[in-house]
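User: ok so my PI wants both of these folded by tonight, can you help

Assistant: No problem, let's get them done. Here's the first:
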Amino acid sequence: MAFGRKHNNTRPDSTAPARPTPSTFGGGPSARHRNRRAAAVIATAVAAGGALALTVTFAGAASASTTHAAVPGKAGAKAGAAGTSSGLPWPSGAYLPDNTPAAAAAFAAWRGHPLDVVTAWGNRGTWQDIVDPGFLYQRFRGSPYTMAFGVAMLPEKVSGVSLQACADGTYNTYWRQFGSVITSYGLGDSIIRLGWEFNGGWYFWKATQPATWAACWRQIVTSARSTAPGLQWNWNVNRGVTSGLADPAQAYPGNAYVNMIGVDSYDMWPSASTAAGWQAQLDGVQGLKYWLAFAETHGKPFSVPEWGNVTTGSSAGGDSPQYVQDMRGFFEANASHLAYESTFQGTTVGGSYGIGTPVPNAAAAYRAGF
């Protein structure tokens, strides 16, 4: 969903649009009542201060598989039957507002397990911003992480650009340059979340014309692969029926152009603070299981590139440890299909877990489970 830091993580950029109003998102608020399903588990986790990591039994969790769809690249090289760097049965990651290896290491130290994946965004005002975010690449050059970069399909400050021109191949030179640049920094095995959340109405590249959007994707991937064949392309929707494209499958560009399929899913629309809300997130229209099945049908590993507690808005779940437990259970049950998951940390969605967090119960659940 369109939280501010996804627009500009590292330096001032006036291109960042305002955060969408709740009516922008698919779905609506659920009925509210207190969920007591996990009181005993959370009490134990809080008392332990995270020392029970990976030993807490989460409601609804299935036995974790010892093998999984490894993330290509640095994290993937460490994955497989021997386990990931994180020690979890799947590659686990995070977005941190500082967007630095030091921030990633500090978060890993706080949770007690290394990160496999780091999520990041560059700026997107001009073609130069998209093609050559050297300030960002330089930070993570040589780091132990697999990088998952959110990459805009079009620049927002350049007049006259369009998805149709992209679909016609007008911008292919830029994308060949994109591949050359990212490879030059040793990041040619990164995950590229091209035009993420395209089914929403809040981004410039929204797929209101899905055939054109898919043709643009194919032009970009084909061009970038000519100079960076190791990039991993993550076709990435927003959970639920949203305002840009009611049926995102209409914008699927084809298996030959996609490496993994992902869904961003926060604790909102509906809130998972009730059992019914969680079931709606899990089993509802275009919910987590729907996109997992979509990925399996297409023979692709599944990802959850963004997830986390939300404390603002009419449908926000707030400081919900049960949501964290339920997400953890979903990841464990589907570890054999999971390319990676990445929690989004920032004040917009409840603040960084850790000291001073406004979601202390959710933070305790995260430390206990991740």
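One down. Here's the second:
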Amino acid sequence: MLEWGIRQRVQKIPGVSFLSGREVIGLETTPDRTRVSGIKHRQRGQLHEQIASMADLVVDASGQSSKLADWLQDLGYKLAEKEEVRSSVGYSTRYYKAVPGSQEEWGGFVRYCVPQQWGIAIEPIENNMWAVILAGMDGMYPAVDAKEFEEQLATSGISPQVLAVLHGAEPLGEPRGYRIPVCIRQHYEQMEQWPAGLLVLGDALCSFDPIYGQGMDAAAVAAETLEECLQEPQTQVRPAFERHVLQRIQEVIQPAWWISTIADLRARGITYCRFRWPVV
């Protein structure tokens, strides 16, 4: 609902347009590849189509599915080491139509137990619904089969008084699974060279274990940092404006990254490492 609300507001901004149903397949650059001048994209499913859209500044906000590292390597750039937390986190979510009045009686319920590496959340959401989430770490993924999901929920160890809020609630569809094998923090600001006209925000730069609620906050403060940098006198940071922005963003998201990382490392089987990209 939050994303829907933000999208509606952005669409009302004069000069903003959306290209829906398209996928970005690469970067447009100047002949010497020192500046990104736009993107290459195509209609989803049209494998032979390629359209160029030019821009003064390209911002990659494509999340964990970002292909930016591969595109930079294809352009001949040498990537810096990245940090990885390999936690193999998995979630399964099922929605229920709430019994009238139950959301007024109860707020939300969250239980997370690190030694057993599992978690559960029951949260009221819009349209009089409950969102029930089962979570696991170190590859202990919750079920996406409806019957198994209900069995895991019943044997999760939460009190019968809490489970009672779902009595009479109508399941709305099957459980949906979400798997996050690794959380990654890129260090593009440490690269020997970085192309002008290119920035990266959000999970495309640093992805978090979602259970700690850091991802949207980190993306928001990164956007605020970009706004602050754009308002600075450009003579102070040019010609390396983009690297300056990336360094500033890393400063503001670093505390969130380490809070999340240290919390994950309390659990069994979770590993942290710095990973050097292969030279291509």
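Residues 92-180 form one domain. Residues 99 and 276 are 52 Å apart (CA to CA). Good luck tonight!
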